[in-house]
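User: I'm new to structure prediction. If I give you an amino acid sequence, what do you actually give back? Let's try with this one:
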Amino acid sequence: MSSKFRVACVQMRTGKDIKRNIEQASDLIRAASDKGASFIATPETTHYMELGGKELFTNTKEQAKDLGLKRFRELATELDVHLLIGSLTIKLSKDKVANRSFLISNKGEILATYDKVHMFDVQLESGESYQESKNFKPGKRAVVADIPGASVGLSVCYDLRFPYLYRALAQAGAQILTIPSAFTQTTGEAHWHILLRARAIETGCYVMAPAQGGTHENGRKTYGHSVIVDPWGEVLAEASNDPGVIWADIQLERVSQVRAQIPSLRHDREIVAPAAAL
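Assistant: Good question. You get back a string of structure tokens that encode the predicted 3D arrangement of the chain. For your 278 residues, that looks like this:
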């Protein structure tokens, strides 16, 4: 890749049938490749969306046996593209799984993996309840990895609300931040665009945020609106609520230009934390 290249985000409405989800993702990745994208990102829970219950552990496989990962590695090679598979649910033990993001080269190699660090444990006013930490094991490390011409910082969904993670990624060299997500309809309407643009502005990075959108087979409602944001906070492309593909041409010199205009990544200061309130 040169410093200027086309990126794309795939938006999905993942259901309970893993094979069908893999085919849907594959078709959309092909469509993105047909548009000329050389780096393509898919959303959180690309091939299976289930937060708990017996089905989660019955249908989830170890990384070496995961059908989706095998298929996506083959597809990256076939299409000669780099893929960010936003996340796959990977079995770790009889009672824990990982929400794991995969960066895959155009040769089908796994360049990096990232396990979602921040768990979404909440009871919403709408009656929806999420307790990710009950079944998912949180990751412990931030990850930056290189694709030709660019450094990519990995994250997943709820991580978006923790700006220190993205600052650490940018200071470690990330030029593109990937934020694959399955934001709820309620929180997406309120905060999705604001948070994504803020992360881009704070770090001077491009942001690629492929998302889940619509009402899923398990009853969950996700916001959609996948976006690609430039380092100044401008939205370059945005989806609606339906499955599909968005794309944009990015130029990495833009990262350097914006960081020269607002060099805040170089201006961190050590401070004394405030005393706890009595």
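You can read the tokens as a compact description of the fold. Here is one thing that stands out. The two ends are 56 Å apart (CA to CA).
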